[in-house]
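Narrative of activities, Objective 1.

The group set out to show that a structural description can be obtained from nothing but a protein's sequence at a throughput compatible with the screening campaign. Below is one input-output pair from the validation batch, recorded exactly as produced.
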Amino acid sequence: MSKKVENIGNTYTSAENKKKQRQQMRKKVVRRRVMVFGGLLLAIIIVLIVMIFAQKDQNDQNAVERQQKEEKYQKQQDEELALKEQLNNLNDENYIEKIARDEYYLSNDGEVIFKLPDDKSQAERKSSKEDH
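Output recorded for this entry:
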């Protein structure tokens, strides 16, 4: 009971077959286009994500560098203030006179300086501190 089915060779069936083939070809073309554009979109997204992470890393490095430079700047500001204070003190005659009396045992006219035993040990401490 097996019968062979054959297509009728009329124009309607051949037109329908051609129409189906065209639709299948269009589907293949559309699938290819979607795959190509989807791949391009995926590649662009990956590149952008990599760029974001690279930029974040660069920003972190810049933040660390900026923090270090701010600390260095603050130290220099403190040093500048100390140097200005020292300059003001060196321009003050009373301060210079005090230093000359304390460190070099200089005196005014008519003054007598007495050297006590504690003074010697203090002078030795000062000199040992200056050596270090």
